[in-house]
Each structure stands twice: as C-alpha cells, then as structure tokens.
Amino acid sequence: MKKWQWHDWMISIVRTLWLINFLLVLLIDPKLYTAPIWIVLMLAFAVYTIPVFIQQFSNRGYIASEIILAGAFHIFLIYALPEQTWQFVIFAFMIGFFCNRQMLWWATIPTIVIIPPILGWISGEPLHMIALTMPFRCATGFIFGYAFQTLVQNQKHRAIIEEQKRVLEQHISQIGELTLMEERSRLSHELHDTIGHTLTSLVVGMESLRPSLPDQQSERLHTLIELGRNGLDDIRKHLHQLSPAPFKGSLSESLIQLTQDFTNSTGVAISFRLIGNEVPVMNQMSFCLYRCTQESLTNAVRHGGANSIIVHLYFENEQLRLQIEDNGAGMEQVRYGFGLTGMKERLHQWRGYLTIHSRPNEGTIVICTLPFQIEEEPEARIKLLLVDDQAIITDSLGQIFAQHADLNVVGTAGDGQIAVEQCETYEPDIVLMDVQMKGMNGIEALQVMKERWPNMKVVLMTTFEDPTQAATALGWGADGYMLKSIHPRELTNAIKLIYSGGTWIDQTISTLVFEDIKRQKENHKEHQKQGHLQEELPYGLTKRELEILQLLAAGMRYKSIATKLFLSEGTIRNYCSTLYSKLGVSNREEAIEAARSEALLVKEQ
Description:
- The protein has helices spanning 6-28, 37-55, 59-80, 88-98, 104-122, 127-209, 215-235, 251-266, 283-302, 338-349, 391-402, 416-426, 442-452, 467-475, 488-499, 507-529, 543-553, 558-565, 569-583, 588-597, and strands at 269-275, 308-315, 319-326, 353-358, 364-371, 382-387, 407-413, 430-434, 457-462, 480-483, 504-505.
- It is an alpha/beta fold.
- Helix 5 runs antiparallel to helix 6.
C-alpha cells in the first residue's frame, strides 16, 4: 500500500468537500432527481472511493477511473442540476495533480476537450460557453493541479537530495574517524616496537660499555644513556605511522635475524629453537609474531634486567605458538602497559591470545598463540572476481593474486552485466571491479550487487582521482576504492583487510573526498547566508551536468569536453554516467534526443 503524504491528505480533503457539497444539495431538494435517492448516493460514493482505492496500486488506473467515473457521474448530475457543471473543475484539478508526462496527452483530451463540452451541451449553455468557457475552466483546474504536483515533486527531490547528502557526509565522516583511529592505534604500535626496540638496544649496549671506559668519559656516556631513556619515554606519548616492512624469507629466518641483531647490540645471550615442521605463514601473522618477539625481548632487558633469553617457535597441528623465556627479575603481578596491550591487540586480530607467567626473581615466560592448521589444504581462502573491460588488467591482477595461496581468482568479466551473472555462479567473497566500462559500468553494477548480495564485498578501481565518483561509490556501499596504480603488495594487503571486515580507501582519494565534502558544505552555508539556494533544474540535473549535456549536443567528445572544462576525461565520463541515469537513457544519442524533446538545450544561434 502506498504511504500517504501531506498532499495526499489535502486532495482527500478536497474530495470530501465535494462530497459534502453534493450531499447538502441532495438533502435540500431530493425531488430534483428522477432516480431513487439510494442509487444517487451509491453513485456518489463510488466516485468518491473507487479512484482512491485504485490509486494505492496504480497511478495510471487512478487517472482512468477518475476520468470515467467523475465524467459519467457529472453527465448524470447535470440533467437534474445544470448549474453544478463547475464541480467537474475539482476533478480536473485532481487529475492534473496525479498526471505525469507519460499520461499527459491521453488524460488531457477527455478532461478538457471531450467531457466539458458534453456537460455544457446537456446543461443548455450557449455555443461560446460550450466551445470556450467550459474547456477553459477545466484546463485552468488541470494546469493548477499539474503545477502543484511539480512543486510537490521539487520539494520531495530536494528533501531526498538533502537526506542523501547528510547520510553520505555522516558515512564519510565515520570512515574518516575510524580510519584515523585505526591508523593511529596501529602505527603507534609500530613506533613503539621499532624505535623503542632500537633505543633499548642502544641504551643496553652503552651500559655494557661503561666498565671499559675511563672515568672522564663516564659522564658523557651517562648523558647519552639518559637521552636514550628520555627518547623511550617520548615514544610512549606520541602516536604516528610507520608501515610494516615486508619479510624476506620464512618466519623462523626473520626471528633468527632479529635475535642475532639484538644480541649484537645488547650483548644479551639469546638462543632460538624451532620445534615442528615449518610451513609458510601469512605475512600479517608473521609480522604479528615478529613484533611480539621485539616487544618481549625489549621488556626482558629493559624492565627485567635479563642477560639470557630463550625463544621457542612451535608449529603444531592446531596452533602456532611463540614462547619467550628470560632469567630477569620477574614480577609479582603482570602490569599491562602500552607494550603488552599492543601485543594482546595484535594477537586478538588473528583470534590469538597472550599468556604471561612471572614470579619475582624467577624470570618471565611470554606465550603468544595463534590458531593455525598445518594440515589445511593450500586452497585459496578468499574468492575473487575480477571485472575490467581491458583483458590485460584482469590478466595482470590474476598473475599477482596467483602468487598468494590464500587468494583465488574464481572468474573474470568484461562488464558489469557479466559480473552480476558470474556473482550468481561463483558467489565470490570480493569483487574487484573497474568503474568505467562499456555497457553496465562499475557504479551501476555495484548497486545491483549490493541489493542482491548485501554481504558481498565490492571494491572499485579507477585510473583517475575523482572525489565525486568516490563519494558516489561509498554512498552505494562500496567496501573499497583504490587507484589502479596501487602497489601489488599494498593491493593484496588491502584485499585481506576488506575480507576481514575493514574498509580501504586510497589516501589521495580520501583526502580529495573530504575536501570536496567540506567545500560543498561551505558553499551551502554561503548560499544560505545570501538568502537563496541554487535553483532546481529538470530531472535533478546540476548546472555542470547541463553544461556537459550542451557540449555533447554540440558534437564534442569526452576528451575535448575535459580539455574545455579543465577536468580529467575520467571525471567527464563519470558525469555522463550520472547524467544518463537521471535522464533514463543509456548512451549519448538518447541523451541528446531526450534533452531536445524536453527543451533542456539552449537554442543554437
């Protein structure tokens, strides 16, 4: 059932007033009608109720029923009350209000040209009344109704646009805040683990040199050590960013190199032991354990004063376990400061956990456990569908993903329509799709995919930095938006992040999007201060879209338009895609034809 708005209630009141007027006339002199009163009342209530009921399901059916029932009833009414011919103007107003462009011609002919002259002829009006006055009255009512409908539609469109803009601004603001929070948290851990680890190594190394230096150098060495310790304190107060370095080799080789470097810089004896058969581990899991080892070694030396540390790495059937034992001072109660909390958070991201055993003067044992299945088949865990109208792009991406055991390309497509069909067949976890394609483009395909498969991840790729396009994609629920020039390592990491539930937006594009939203808000406020808002154009077109439509009609190509307007060709293509959608067409020729038929183009001189 259609939900009624305020204008529907207003029309209902107009109908009710018409019915009340008719009933009053009927009660004043019921003998005016030759037919029984109950038949007249039934006809009146049929005219009053049937079109309203049909309107809930079909606007076209409502217009037809209104014309037939109201017209027939007033023809019947005029035989008894010729002076009531004006009442049909009320129905002409209501027909005009609910009439759209597709129904305009077949609705106006009976409402203005056929029924009013019949009413005038039956009532015995003069010829000029029949031919001119009666049609003019009904035409006036019809035009007022249609104009009122236009005002209501403009108000509804304005409300929808404002609501969409508000939701999009809120969505982008939340993405920005969450991204900033996640980055600050992640990168603060990076600083703590890298620079903190290095400074600790330097401080302990310089401490080991103190006995071998002459007394006159001890004070200078003490100053350097204090500078290092103050730097460690500063690191814990500031949150910034450092990207994780790629691993060269296996997890055990990385940990062996780490322990050797730590021993060389601090002089602390560290032994490493691998237990079980090592198998390849995801880079993120390796990096997690690498940072946990760094933090544990640093804590053992800095806080525990240990001079001997044992590192065990266990590859078990159901888990991957890192165990670090030291002979330091230990502690009576474990205090989860910044470092240990960071370790817990890292492990928790991979459903792992941290266990610490410590007693005073008995050292500390740190155990990091991650779920791990060695017997698991090397079958890809993330199913990918690649969509691009350039085969070289999909082939290149396929080669990149083929190097990762946890990524599997289940299919490729050359346009959005084929992609939707393959989503039905393969049920991919993530769709990596180009924005600009022939046929159904990426934005249109995104809308269909999110409507049919809300939980499926969709990532859009583009060649150009287009904030408007990015905002549109995010508004339709895109889980990622990136440039095609993205580094392969960064691409695979982004895919895995999105699969885990995150959102990935290219940093350059996100900056432009936020600036574009900020600029729109400032322009909106400025227009409000000046006491006027930008005038609504037909079909919800913007002035920029209308300008591009004018240039298309002049025969200019996308590249020429981009040069003329100082925009990128990708931006022009995005504008045209939005333009075609608003006009309900699929190509340039149909858009130009629709624009000319609706008189949207400025007449050429």
